[in-house]
């Protein structure tokens, strides 16, 4: 066919298609930003969007998918420009709070408080996404930080189960070390994994009241309070055993997960996503399988904290200030039981929607979920709970303790000064 | 005389040795990348330096056929944006460079200094206001929105090279052209532009390379994945294949190749242009 | 400088319209997308502002005072300075040596070497950073493998996880990537020196070192000035490579002033202070530029 012929046939096709297109032209556009760059996540999310557009021919969903770090850079700039996307990934807490206070989010209390949608999830999971009594985002994943350990490696040094007491935990670390096994894998460069270790020690030492009083400002000393400093000292005592892999200060979270997933390191302290990330990062793509188990952070003798007090968090989707009703409805669709079940099966999230638990099949994941469901105190990750200026300072401070460039007292003072400046 | 030649031979040997060492230093990381892309992840971890065995050609071919990642669309986007940036900078830069080199007017020195300010801050400094600016011009999620800022930030360097070069064109030529009845623009297009080909080629190559490598501007401007450029592709690919360093290295290699080809084809212009441009200014 | 090269004559006068056509587009583009954004950043710098909502919390020069007191700023600027100095005393001499070698017309393979040496410059910062991250990888990187050939592999250094080695690890990458650029500038300068001058000096019995000092170096003055300018300005604007190689961490051991600005402004939501850092980077570069142009470069004229 020559060019003229091609053009003519193109014109005919256009003439035929055009009326149909105008008829079905979508009128409502929903900008959706997510970070599911993994092939299965990306396909699943695209599937959700396609399914929704099929049901609602007047809605057009535009997806932006970015790697975690790139997403954060871009979202910040876009938010600061006052033009948020309609639906986007959030981890709640202090960052969401800053967005909400600047009027960048759509308040969805009306749609979620005391409605069927709101009640489709446990009441507690909404707290992370609530700012000044108003709800701005819908959770889809809620879990907590636990130790994830290799049963076989622990068995090698005579441990059939994970220590429930800190002193015993230190003994385990020494035995592993003596057996030539890297006891703990830690992503020192990413900072937040180490931060979790420090904050858990503090929680076991000071209990729920330490956290609540520091956050509320009731505790005048704030992070200068002796318990926080002691947590830093105890972290140093742990670090003195050299329990982490060589060069851990330069390691990223992917490196951390790979060491556990490949059976090199005995454990990591991580959130509910750990098994999946280990799997992705392991050479075999299978991870540890049955050899992997989860256990709560051990208790510390003489500490006020109980093992039922947890530090955790998860993810959700927030709604930008210009989000239409269609966008809200789309998020509702995303969090319905069927989709959340698929999601839990595909990505291993601890689905928040009641009934979607059937998608959670892994016994470890079930254990973590039970821990969250039955907890007596829930603290959002410290770096997320505060505005980024403070959260960042917490992460920095713990890194300086581990690198030995600051004493625990100096590190806690640095956190407190950021906390006060806010 | 004899000791002279012996010394010369020794000198030559030393020179080749130095060059060989530098070649090695440059080539080894590139070798690791190319070969790493052919290894299994297990082999890569166990023996990063050795030759791949077995050779996993499919890791490259899967990307080239679109089975894994999307290489070609991102390549096309990078090419479009690169050529667009070169086009814009050549047109406005040649005009401005000519004016600054050849026309005498009161503000000449001041305007040139004004453009030179562009050398004094990196793009990251003004990322948020730049974004606001692009939004108010309705340039988000469009290739133009990447092309214009890249051209704007490249202007300072372009003018620095071009002004010096044009100044070096003998004035008699311009006078002769005037006698022949050429207008100023006639002179610009028929004499200055052809004579400036080397420096324009240099500027084009440098602009193309920096556009090709830019990460932040496209990240800010583009929302839809089908518009992403190669450096963005690298970051997303890393997010997708966190620990599969063999695949990541394969993608890196593919993303490097076009820049290397362009460079090898155009390399002679880089030296030629720098010789005649800034140095003579 | 401008006056000298523009002699009097009707050709050099132009009406406003011609000037507007020639300079207008460049001026508009440059002003709208470079100057205006930077100017806006300068306005933020006087506020405490998280980037969201209206700017209301005017702080005067408080942010600037903080800048001078901030220990991480001191650390980052020190790193920038180290990078600049190492560029000058290590990178540029390497570039010069190679330029002299490959510029000898009798040296076979000169074009090949020249092409190859420039190659890293055309690779993107993102790709370079990722590639070197792998080379330095503590579990399966190249450095570890090479170390294993000579010493027990367990003792291999973890360059990016060690606060004393990180900056040097980054410096290696910087030199790797940019020496070819400086070499090319020198080649351009060398080609400008008349061959006869060098030959004349050789005939006079000067050794090649003496020839280099008395003829080559002075002849390359302009290109050396240019390369020093780029090396120093580039050191203070360094961002992408450091970001791709661990974001300047652990404990700011590789922090540069631009990575710190990026963290403050875009990660910690302290865009006011971020603006302050931006302005200070600009002022440092401007100060250097003026000093360099007026004192060092002008003296030669």
Please outline what is shown here:
By secondary structure, chain A is α/β, with parallel strands linked by helices. Chain A contains 18 helices and twelve strands.
Give an overview in words.
The complex is a heterotrimer of chains A (422), B (281) and C (301). In chain A, 50% of the residues lie in helices and 15% in strands. By secondary structure, chain A is an alpha/beta fold. Chain A has 2 domains: 182 residues, Periplasmic binding protein-like II (D-Maltodextrin-Binding Protein, domain 2), CATH 3.40.190; 207 residues, 3-Layer(aba) Sandwich (D-Maltodextrin-Binding Protein, domain 2), CATH 3.40.190.10. In chain A, helix 2 packs antiparallel against helix 14 and helix 9 runs antiparallel to helix 10. Chain B folds into 2 domains: 63 residues; 206 residues, MetI-like fold. Helices cover 75% and strands 0% of the residues of chain B. Chain B has 13 helices and no strands. The two termini of chain B are 42 Å apart. Chain B has 281 residues and is mainly alpha-helical. The C terminus of chain B is likely disordered. Chain C is mainly alpha-helical and 301 residues long. The longest helix of chain C has 33 residues. The N terminus of chain C is likely disordered. Chains in contact: A-B, A-C, B-C. Chains B and C meet through helix 1, helix 2, helix 4, helix 5 and helix 6 of B and helix 1, helix 2, helix 4, helix 5 and helix 6 of C.
Average residue pLDDT of chain C: 85
The N- to C-terminal Cα distance of chain A equals: 70 Å
Supply the CATH superfamily name of chain C. MetI-like
Query: Helices and strands of chain A, in N-to-C order?
Result: HEHEHEHHHEEEEHHEHHHEHEEHHHEHHH
CATH class category of chain C: Mainly Alpha
The assigned structural class of chain C equals mainly alpha
Count the helices of chain C. How many? Answer: 14
Largest interface chains and counts? B-C, 103 and 97 residues
Structural class of chain A: alpha/beta
- Report strand % of chain C: under 5%
Broad CATH class of the largest domain in chain A: Alpha Beta
Helix amount of chain A: 40-55%
């Amino acid at each position: 066919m020559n060019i003229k012929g091609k053009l003519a046939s193109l014109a005919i096709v256009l003439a035929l298609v055009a009326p149909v297109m105008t008829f079905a032209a979508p009128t409502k556009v929903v900008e959706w930003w997510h970070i599911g760059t993994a092939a299965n996540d990306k396909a699943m999310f695209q599937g959700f969007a396609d399914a929704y557009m099929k049901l609602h021919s007047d809605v057009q969903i535009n997806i932006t998918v970015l790697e975690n770090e790139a997403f954060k850079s871009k979202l910040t700039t876009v938010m600061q420009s006052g033009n948020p996307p309609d639906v986007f990934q959030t981890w709640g807490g202090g960052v969401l709070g800053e967005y909400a206070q600047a009027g960048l989010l759509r308040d969805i209390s009306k749609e979620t408080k005391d409605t069927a949608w709101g009640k489709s999830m446990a009441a507690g999971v909404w707290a992370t996404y609530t700012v000044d009594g108003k709800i701005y985002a819908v959770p889809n994943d809620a879990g907590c930080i636990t130790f994830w350990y290799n049963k076989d490696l622990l068995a090698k040094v005579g441990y059939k189960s994970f220590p429930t007491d800190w002193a015993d935990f230190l003994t385990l670390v020494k035995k592993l070390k003596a057996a030539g096994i890297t006891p703990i894998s830690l992503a020192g460069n990413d900072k937040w994994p180490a931060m979790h270790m420090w904050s858990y020690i503090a929680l076991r030492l000071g209990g729920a009241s330490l956290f609540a009083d520091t956050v509320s400002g009731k505790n005048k000393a704030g992070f200068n309070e002796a318990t926080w400093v002691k947590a830093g000292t105890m972290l140093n005592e742990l670090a003195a055993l050299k329990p982490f892999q060589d060069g851990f200060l330069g390691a990223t979270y992917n490196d951390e997960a790979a060491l556990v997933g490949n059976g090199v390191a005995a454990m990591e302290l991580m959130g509910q996503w750990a098994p999946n990330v280990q799997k992705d990062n392991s050479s075999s793509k299978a991870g540890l399988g049955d050899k992997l188990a989860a256990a709560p952070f051990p208790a510390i003798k003489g500490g006020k904290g109980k093992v039922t007090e947890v530090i955790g968090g998860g993810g959700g989707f927030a709604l930008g200030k210009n989000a239409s009703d269609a966008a809200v409805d789309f998020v509702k669709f995303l969090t319905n039981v069927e989709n959340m079940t698929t999601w839990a099966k595909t990505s291993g999230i601890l689905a928040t929607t009641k009934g979607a638990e059937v998608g959670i099949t892994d016994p470890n994941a079930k254990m973590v979920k039970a821990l969250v469901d039955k907890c007596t105190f829930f603290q959002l990750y410290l770096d997320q709970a505060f505005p980024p200026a403070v959260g960042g300072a917490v992460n920095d401070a713990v890194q300086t303790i581990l690198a030995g460039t600051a004493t625990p007292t100096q590190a806690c003072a640095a956190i407190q000064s950021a906390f006060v400046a806010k | 005389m004899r000791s002279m030649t012996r010394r010369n031979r020794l000198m030559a040997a030393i020179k080749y040795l130095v060059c060989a060492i530098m070649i090695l230093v440059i080539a080894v990381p590139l070798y690791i990348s190319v070969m790493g892309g052919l290894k299994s992840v297990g082999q890569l971890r166990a023996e990063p330096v050795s030759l791949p065995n077995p050779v996993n050609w499919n890791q490259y071919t899967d990307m080239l056929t679109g089975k894994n990642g999307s290489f070609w669309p991102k390549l096309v986007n990078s090419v479009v944006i690169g050529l667009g940036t070169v086009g814009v900078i050549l047109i406005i830069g040649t005009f401005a460079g000519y004016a600054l080199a050849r026309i005498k007017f009161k503000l000449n020195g001041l305007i040139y200094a004004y453009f030179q300010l562009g050398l004094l801050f990196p793009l990251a400094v003004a990322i948020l206001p730049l974004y606001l600016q692009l939004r108010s011009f309705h340039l988000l999620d469009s290739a133009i929105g990447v092309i214009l800022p890249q051209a704007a930030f490249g202007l300072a360097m372009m003018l620095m090279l071009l002004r010096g070069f044009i100044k070096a064109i003998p004035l008699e030529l311009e006078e002769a052209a005037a006698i022949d009845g050429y207008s100023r623009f006639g002179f610009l297009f028929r004499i200055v532009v052809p004579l400036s080909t080397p420096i324009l080629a240099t500027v084009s190559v440098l602009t193309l390379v920096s556009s090709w490598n830019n990460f932040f501007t496209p990240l800010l401007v583009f929302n839809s994945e089908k518009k992403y450029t190669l450096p963005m592709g690298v970051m997303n690919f890393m997010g997708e294949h966190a620990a599969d360093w063999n695949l990541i290295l394969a993608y890196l290699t593919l993303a490097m190749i076009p820049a290397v080809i362009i460079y090898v084809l155009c390399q002679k212009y880089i030296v030629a242009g720098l010789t005649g441009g800034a140095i003579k200014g | 400088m401008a006056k000298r090269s523009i002699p009097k004559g009707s050709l050099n006068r132009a009406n406003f319209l011609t000037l507007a056509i020639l300079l207008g587009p460049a001026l508009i583009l440059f002003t709208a997308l470079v100057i205006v954004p930077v100017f806006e950043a300068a306005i933020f710098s006087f506020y405490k502002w998280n980037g969201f909502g209206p700017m209301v919390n005017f702080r005067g020069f408080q942010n600037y005072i903080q800048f001078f007191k901030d220990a991480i700023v001191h650390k980052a600027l020190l790193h920038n300075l180290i990078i600049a100095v190492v560029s000058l005393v290590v990178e540029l001499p390497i570039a010069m040596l190679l330029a002299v070698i490959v510029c000898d017309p009798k040296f076979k393979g000169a074009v090949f070497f020249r092409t190859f040496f420039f190659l890293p410059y055309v690779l993107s910062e993102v790709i370079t950073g990722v590639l070197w991250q792998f080379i330095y990888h503590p579990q399966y990187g190249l450095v570890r493998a090479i170390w294993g050939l000579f010493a027990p592999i367990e003792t291999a250094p973890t360059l990016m996880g060690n606060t004393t080695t990180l900056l040097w690890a980054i410096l290696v990458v910087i030199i790797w990537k940019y020496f070819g650029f400086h070499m090319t500038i020198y080649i351009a300068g060398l080609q400008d020196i008349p061959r006869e001058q060098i030959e004349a000096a050789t005939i006079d019995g000067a050794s090649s070192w003496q020839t280099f000092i008395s003829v080559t170096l002075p002849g390359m003055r302009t290109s050396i000035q240019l390369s020093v300018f780029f090396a120093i300005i580039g050191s203070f604007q360094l961002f992408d490579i450091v970001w791709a190689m661990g974001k300047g961490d652990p404990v700011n051991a590789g922090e540069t002033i631009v990575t710190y600005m990026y963290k403050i402004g875009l990660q910690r939501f302290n865009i006011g202070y971020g603006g302050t850092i931006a302005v200070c980077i600009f002022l440092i570069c401007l100060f250097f530029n003026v000093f360099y142009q007026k004192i060092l470069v002008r003296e030669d004229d």
